[in-house]
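User: Please fill in residues for this 281-position structure.
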């Protein structure tokens, strides 16, 4: 009987994993931590976290602002890691929750689970004290933008960024009650989430909010490749690196203001984004 109890106890210990106090360096100043968090009581949700780090992968700063990023439909979260790397270089922590079949629409609460993991900061892990839980935004691209608005409406986030997307029409009645700064970021060359559709979605979003239309930027230039645009016959006149620079300039202009003040969208900095159309209310 004692032997059975000993084996059972050993198996229980083996099921746990020691908290990681560092991540894997992905580029100078940025590391990645891969973990699993609890969702819906029993579900284990894989989450990848990019954060400012030293040469050994340990956090180089604490109490950082953060972003939970929601992938587009059937697009791997890794396709958006370029955004996380650039944000981490600027002092942000960025979490990418995974979803079955890469479809976030069917597991909306995974984003909340990722937010809670960042805010809680497991003791002894790299997440301990890493994030200021009062400065966490949610962002997402395409279908992930639809889910972003659902998460923003649930509460718990301090700002929202909708990239090349618009809200679910089922949420239209709720959107006017949104109380956090919101950015709708559109590509004028987007052949899928067209500018008119994004504008129509933004029209229902209350102040403080901003619409930024990036000239010539296409749908998949929010990811790490424009290959899907080209396959679908969508003209791609702008170099991907330039598109990325403009996306990131708009993102950081908004986030730095919105996470510092619940009444600001960073209008002055947004209007400095090259080749863009900016509307604010």
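Assistant: Residues filled in for all 281 positions:
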């Amino acid at each position: 009987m004692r032997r059975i109890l000993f084996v059972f106890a050993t198996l229980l210990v083996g099921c746990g994993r020691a908290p990681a106090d560092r991540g894997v360096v992905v580029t100078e100043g940025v590391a990645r931590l891969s973990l699993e968090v609890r969702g819906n009581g029993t579900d284990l949700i894989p989450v990848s976290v990019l954060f400012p780090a030293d040469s050994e992968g340990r956090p180089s700063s604490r109490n950082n602002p953060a972003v939970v990023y929601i992938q587009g439909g059937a697009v791997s979260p890794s396709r958006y890691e370029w955004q996380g790397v650039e944000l981490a270089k600027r002092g942000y922590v960025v979490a990418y929750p995974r979803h079955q079949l890469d479809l976030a629409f069917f597991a909306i609460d995974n984003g909340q689970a990722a937010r809670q993991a960042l805010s809680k900061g497991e003791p002894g892990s790299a997440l301990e004290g890493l994030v200021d839980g009062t400065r966490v935004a949610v962002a997402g691209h395409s279908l992930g933008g639809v889910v972003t608005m659902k998460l923003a409406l649930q509460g718990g986030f301090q700002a929202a960024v909708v990239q090349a997307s618009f809200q679910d029409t089922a949420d239209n009645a709720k959107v006017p009650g949104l109380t956090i700064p919101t950015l709708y970021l559109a590509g004028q060359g987007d052949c899928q989430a067209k500018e008119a559709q994004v504008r129509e979605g933004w029209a229902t979003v209350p102040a403080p909010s901003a619409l930024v239309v990036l000239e010539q930027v296409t749908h998949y230039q929010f990811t790490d490749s424009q290959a899907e645009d080209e396959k679908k016959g969508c003209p791609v006149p702008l170099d991907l690196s330039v598109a990325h620079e403009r996306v990131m300039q708009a993102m950081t202009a908004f986030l730095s203001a919105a996470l510092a003040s619940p009444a600001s969208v960073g209008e002055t900095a947004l209007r400095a984004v090259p080749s863009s159309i900016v509307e604010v209310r």
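For context: The two ends are 70 Å apart (CA to CA).
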